[in-house]
Amino acid sequence: MESAKRNGAGYYDPTAFQAIKNTEKGAKKTMEIYRGDIFYIKKINQDTGRPAVIVSNNDINESQNMVEVAYLVEKPNESLPTHAKVRCHLPSTALCEQVVSVSKDRIDGFIRTCTDEEIEKINKGLSISLGITESDDTMAEKLKELTDSLSEAQRINDELRNRIKEEIDKQQELEKQLSQIETENTDETIKVAAERDIYKDLYMKLTEKLIGDKI
Hints:
Layout: H1 14-29, E1 37-42, E2 49-54, H2 58-63, E3 66-73, E4 83-87, E5 91-103, E6 107-113, H3 116-130, H4 136-180, H5 186-214
Antiparallel strand pairs: 1-2, 1-6, 2-3, 3-5, 4-5
Helix pairs in contact: 4-5
């Protein structure tokens, strides 16, 4: 340690040494850390460490000197719902039931950032571990989605009903025209009858679709 406090010329210079240490600390404090980032976390008073994913929110990550992490392992217990699969250098698992607070000074090399799918799995594991249920806002959002889906189904149902009514009206008009045609006008009779059969077939298909949607 004493040798580290000497300058390039070999003179003892504790002031310069402290300035360098302060610069290093300042650099660590300004390190950009975001939720979902995977870093190596050094063990206390050691250079070795293990990978972990940042799980604290970005406001804390920016303003505080401590962050919350979930450590990663390569051989998870597949039966635990609090284990979230993520990729580090190798396929790994975040231990969401073992969230710990660590100082930013222990954050070392950046590895990668989790995908949205991986973060979703981590969120689920944390929710199960902490016993957090869905918020009222989330339930309200899901209820709105369901209501919108029902409204759209009703709109399609009404549209089908209107189309069926139009086809029924056309079929009735054709039946009326057919009854007015002279029996000796065979060609015209066949033409009108063919048109009637086409609309009748279309009516049956629309009716079957409407009934199928209701089931």
